User: What shape does this take?
Amino acid sequence: MSGKENKNNIENVKIKELKEKLFLNRENLGHSMPTGDIRKAVKFCEKYKKFLDLSKTEREVVDYAVTILRREGFTEFREGKRYTTGDKLFYLNRGKALVAAIIGKEGLDKGVNILASHIDSPRIDLKQNPLYEDAELALFKTHYYGGIKKYQWTTVPLALHGVIVKADGTIVKVNIGESEDDPVFVITDLLPHLAQQQYKRPSADLVKGEELNLLIGSMPFRSGERTKESDLVKLNIMNVLFEKYGIVESDFRSAELEAVPAFKATDVGFDRSLIGAYGQDDRVCAYTTLMATVACRIPTRTVVTVLADKEEVGSDGNTGLNSQFLEHFIEALAEVKSVPLRTVLLNSRCISADVSAAFDPTFANVLEKMNAPYLNHGAVLMKYTGSRGKSGTNDASAEYVGYIRSLFDENNVSWQTGMLGKVDTGGGGTVAKFISALNVDTIDVGVPMLSMHSPFEITAKKDIYMAYKAFTAFANSK
Ligand code: MN
Ligand code: MN
Assistant: This one.
């Protein structure tokens, strides 16, 4: 080696060292997870898949959570009771939203740690007067819930979940299409041979809202007999429903019936690294925050974990986070201790736990490579969401991001930053803005996802486990 070559070599080493010291290293983030954690992630996700299969509506998530919480020693919240350090409680909001809490060692005046996620997912709701017969087929009229690409929901086997409140007030729970021997239901689509006109529609209208009609039967009442009576297929369906549930047609008016994909959560890929399932937005965060909460022993600060409804339709309604149920719950805890609510809130911290759009190489043009989250790169930390110049967002302060970032690093959480697509290509929001409106430091942290809001959403096992680790670290933070 000549003197000049040697000098060049030294320079190159220096450049390399300096780059390592100064540049943000995004490369190989996905490979940096220790094998021990990968094994734990696989195990953790087996239970997660079972949870998904049992929890396809907000009511079912609440039921599941209550079972877990009771098993872990949580009891139902009683207004006016003086809770002390280590007490574990849960508060139910109309069977569709839930708050779980563990009273910490420090007083409420020091603030609480809030983990918030949502448990409603896009789906197909029945209208209040749904049942009709047309061309000797029985169908349900529907109204989709949340932001869906309507064409994705045709020709998919659907199960029916929900409740019917009968005229006498009795409540009938419905869950049909989930067992092996249950029938399923389906929204039909046009065969390609006759779709020339349909293809000319704008793609948002490829299948229109009023075309999302659910096929539920085709057999007339007493099919062997000759009769000129009309609506016999409809009659037969009503007769089946009367025998099974004791309901009459007018009972649909006081029902919440939701059609959701009938298939089960499953591994995706030869390497089984991914999970495909319905409703992972945002049940992946509901499950991981719930598990992080029950894993807490006695936290320093009081932990408040909320599973909210209605996020997919803007968080409105009394079970959504734009209502005051969370605030009222914290107020009730504070009142007995004579701590002003505003003091609790001012000193509180929140992680708004929701999914984000992972980089998809097939649709790379809508995502900005440097700032998009990637599958397998860990929990996603989003300073802001929103659209068109950060409109409608909670934009976490640099100080709070700095705090969360150190917390994750100290607890060996693989994490990445992310945002929802390129600037001005669309956007979206979460519950973060409703909690930050209470004067609580709030940031979005979640799991990257492909095919969001489709019947079959994709997440990575590594990221799910890292979200769990991130939420555990947050719940236990001082
Ligand atoms: Mn969500
Ligand atoms: Mn969503």
About this structure: The chain has eleven helices and 23 strands. Residues 118, 281-282, 311, 354-355 surround manganese (II) ion (ligand 1) (CB under 6 Å).
